[in-house]
Design goal:
- The chain is an alpha/beta fold and 364 residues long.
- It is built from twelve helices and 14 strands.
- The strands form four sheets. It has an eight-stranded parallel beta barrel, surrounded by four helices. A two-stranded antiparallel sheet has the order 1-2. A two-stranded parallel sheet has the order 6-9.
- Strand 12, helix 8 and strand 13 form a beta-alpha-beta unit.
- Helix 1 runs parallel beside helix 2 and helix 3 runs parallel beside helix 6.
- It is globular, with a radius of gyration of 19 Å.
């Protein structure tokens, strides 16, 4: 039986363990450019023997209009590529593997964060009842405008360009963010998508943007370096439940089979919340793909070890635990206690609560 700490190959990427660091927004990239502080943060968690077998970076916007939170790093300019290269070099120097999460927030944004104070774009013109993080703290998101049909190829092209930038920056691959109520999921779910064009209405149409993005990204960098994140029932960012999430997400994943994805990363239940928020058959969803299966949300040591040893999942992603425990992999192996999380330093700031958490060797 496989162990959480056994090696695995996912597509073209060989990993030393199945412990994954999940994407974690930290808002520490002024000017949207990765920096030395970020390189140290990721390097601390990169060594497979003590940290993660795979790091998935914080969500990173694919274009200027993809931003929705203050000080998030992008992946579309030469300066950002150079900044990220410092991160990937630091991770690889520790023997780690790292992929970047490609992000477009859609309507989860604020006019103060977008060029010229323009409104966010989405599948819909309806505003979400949620907040985002701006220079003034947490504020309600701005009302979006619905993308014109003719604009959508430009969105797809931005994903493709970002994927190319990621490889140029030294990443081992990318993860397409199609979860948590952001742009792609705004197209997927009929609770949000009220379009009447080729991207709205029946499931075949609502999954079109996801298919086109996956096709473009895999054509650019290969399916073996491309992952996908889904969250079939999360209510995050006021997305609302789809009328038939099982049919929607099974169809979406089945349609992606020709592209040979490296992994599928599934948030079970409500992101950062209860796992039983709504009924969903994740095993049936898994049967739609041959990609490595990564699970996320509320996994502790016992549950993570069980899900891998049973074959129910290939990898387990841990989120907040990795913030406070750079050596989470080692702590999981030993069954050691975890450092408490300083919630006040989660978003924005500097080194405190970012690169100063103690590791076992320092506290023994």
């Amino acid at each position: 039986m496989p162990s959480l700490f056994d090696p695995i190959r996912i597509g073209d990427i060989a990993l030393d363990t199945r412990v994954v660091m999940a994407p974690l927004t930290r808002n520490r990239a002024p000017g949207h450019v990765p920096n030395a502080l970020m390189a140290e943060y990721y390097a601390q968690r990169a060594q497979p023997a003590t940290g993660a077998g795979l790091i998935i970076t914080e969500a990173s916007p694919i274009c200027e209009f993809g931003h929705g939170y203050l000080d998030t790093p992008g992946i579309y300019t030469p300066e950002q590529v150079e900044g990220w290269r410092k991160v990937t070099d630091a991770v690889h120097a520790r023997g780690g593997r790292i992929v970047i999460q490609l992000w477009h927030v859609g309507r989860i944004s604020h006019v103060s964060l977008l060029p010229g104070g323009q409104p966010p774009v989405s599948a819909t013109a309806r505003a979400a009842n949620t907040k985002t993080y701006t220079a003034r703290g947490f504020e309600p998101v701005s009302a979006p405008r619905a993308l014109a049909t003719a604009e959508i190829p430009g969105i797809v092209a931005a994903y493709r360009h970002a994927a190319r930038c990621a490889i140029e920056a030294g990443f081992d691959g990318v993860e397409i963010h199609a979860a948590n109520g952001y742009l792609i999921e705004q197209f997927l779910r009929d609770s949000c998508n009220d379009r009447t064009d080729a991207y709205g209405g029946p499931i075949e149409n609502r999954t079109r943007l996801l298919r086109e993005v996956v096709k473009a990204v895999t054509a650019e960098i290969g399916g073996g370096r491309t992952g996908l994140r889904l969250s079939p029932v999360t209510p995050a960012n006021d997305i609302g439940q789809d009328s038939d999430p099982q049919a929607l997400y099974e169809a979406a994943l089945a349609q992606l089979a020709p592209y040979g994805l490296a992994f599928v990363h599934v948030v079970e239940g409500a992101t950062g919340g209860p796992r039983d928020v709504a009924p969903f058959d994740y095993a049936a969803l898994r049967r739609q793909t041959n990609a490595a299966w990564m699970v996320n949300n509320g996994y502790d040591r016992r549950l993570a070890m069980e899900v891998v040893s049973s074959g129910a999942a290939d990898l387990v992603a841990f989120g907040k635990a990795f913030i406070a425990n750079p050596d989470l992999g080692l702590r999981l192996q030993r069954g050691a206690a975890l450092n408490p999380l300083d919630a006040a330093t989660l978003y924005g700031g500097g080194a405190r609560g970012y690169i100063d958490y103690p590791v076992l060797a320092a506290t023994a």
